[in-house]
Amino acid sequence: MIVIILIALAAGSASALMFASIISGALISLLLFYLAPLPLMVAALGWGPLAATIGGIAAASGLGLMFGLPYCIAFVVTVALPAWWLGHLALLGRPLPAEEAGNGAPPAAPAMEWYPVGRILLWIAGFAMLTTITAMLTLGSDAEAITASLKRGLLRILTPRNAAPSGDTERWVSALAIIAPPAAAIVAMMTLTLNLWLAGKITATSGRLHRPWPDLKSAELPPMTLVALSVALAFCFVGGLIALFAQITATALLMAYAITGFAVLHTLTLALKGRAFWLSCAYAVVVVFGWPVLALVVLGLADAVFGFRQRFMRGRPPPVPAA
Prior knowledge:
Blueprint: H1 2-20, H2 27-34, H3 37-47, H4 49-67, H5 69-90, E1 93-95, H6 98-101, E2 112-114, H7 117-137, H8 143-158, H9 167-205, H10 224-235, H11 240-268, H12 275-289, H13 293-306, H14 308-315
Antiparallel strand pairs: 1-2
Helix pairs in contact: 1-3, 1-4, 3-4, 3-5, 3-9, 4-5, 5-7, 7-9, 7-11, 8-9, 9-11, 10-11, 11-13
């Protein structure tokens, strides 16, 4: 127990320092800020959710004492809570019944059914919505106030000091203020996903991951996600604060389908020669240009409707048994 507490305090201190580094304004602090959940996620996956709980409470308390209650609440919502809950879900499993575990004979160790990766992805989308909506509500209580606050902040960044903004700058700022909330949801979605993947790789490499590595290319979202996405898209056109929140929700869910689109791509290229090269090219194109992620969103949605992966796997010949 002492070891768990020490690990938790170390992870919490590292996470709090990375989170607070954004105050410095240095460019590297932005990277550290986005990686702030990583130490707590490593603690959760390697030493259990209790370690993330202790570390998160210690870090939030320290930030609250040094910088005030708003920083404490922001850390809990954006870092500690997602790290603890996602780490808990990743280690959540149950033994399979004996008849499902093998060919009639009970195994020496019971086979485990782990929490589905697709549902974890849906939780990540939920946390992305929560953190983005919470951040928007700190700027105002209605859509007009939030947009005005975003415009003022962007004008301070894009306009030289003591200079009046030009007409072109104001038009650009107005456009950026409109896309800023969905863009923030995309960033939150991708950073949480990346942090959880990195934490899993770190703990697996160190031998501390208490579960087998999941088959990521089989990840699929629950069927009701399509219904939730359709409802969110419909509310995007009602206007006001509801439309703003619906845009954030729809963006996060579409990014979840983009990630499943990558899983579909990994599955459909199994029989392709030079698979690693083509997959690397696909990732590079998406990272460099950004907009090709729309094709992956379409691929993920199409797979959810038509089941491309199931059809592909059914059409593949069975593996040849080893001699």
